[in-house]
Design brief:
40% of the residues lie in helices and 17% in strands. The protein is α/β, with parallel strands linked by helices and 206 residues long. Strand 2 (51-54), helix 3 (58-71) and strand 3 (75-77) form a beta-alpha-beta unit. The longest helix has 18 residues, at 123-140.
């Protein structure tokens, strides 16, 4: 099964570097242009996408709707594709968290996939639910090619596990807004992984 893993477009909180998690904020004007550019690229590349699964969080769902319309595919809401829950840190600027709680910020974003923010969940837990969904989807053998719309931080954990078999090096697997990754799942194993593809965004104005 081929998987195209997409991150949602830029939001106001992305722009202002505010931690989102299960909270939401509106898509920026640039985010709307990012969405159009991604849809155009996936149409041009003619991936034979049969179904799109999206996180129910609005910023991801809106991307899913645009992709479904552009690619003429069914769209299914999938709760397991949500971002990591950042708990009490949601709504706080990343810079403030780093200044006031540097050890927590470092563990959360750079060092420890098993770190749990207050009233949140670990990256390992969040990644596990997506990995479980992917493997169930692959075992069902219903589709040959699917598109998954999810979120930035949890995608880093998923990509690390797919590429290396462990989550430890998650910071290296950056997934910019409206970028996508492509990989194959064969008998539960990942092959041909390319991540953070964003060349379609290079000509967009800020």
């Amino acid at each position: 099964m081929k998987v195209i893993l997409v991150r949602h477009a830029e939001t106001e909180w992305n722009l202002n570097r505010i931690i989102q998690g299960h909270s939401d904020s509106i898509i920026t004007p640039r985010g709307m242009r990012e969405t159009s550019a991604l849809v155009t690229t996936l149409v041009e590349r003619a991936y034979p996408i049969e179904c799109i699964y999206s996180s129910p969080l609005e910023r991801a769902w809106l991307m899913g709707v645009s992709l479904a319309e552009g690619l003429h595919c069914p769209l299914i809401m999938e709760p397991s594709l949500k971002e990591q829950a950042f708990g009490l840190f949601e709504g706080i600027a990343s810079e403030r968290l780093t200044r006031c709680n540097p050890d927590d910020a470092n563990a959360l974003f750079e060092r420890d996939a098993n770190y749990c923010p207050p009233a949140g969940e670990t990256l390992a837990q969040a990644s596990h639910r997506i990995m479980h969904f992917l493997h169930n989807l692959q075992e069902a053998k219903e589709y040959q090619t699917v598109c998954i719309v999810s979120h930035g931080h949890v995608s880093q954990g998923v990509l690390a596990q797919l590429k290396e078999g462990v989550i430890d090096n998650f910071p290296r697997y950056a997934q910019p807004n409206a970028s996508y990754s492509v990989f194959e799942l064969v008998d539960g194993k990942c092959t041909g992984l390319r991540w953070g593809i964003s060349t379609h965004l290079l000509k967009l104005e800020r």
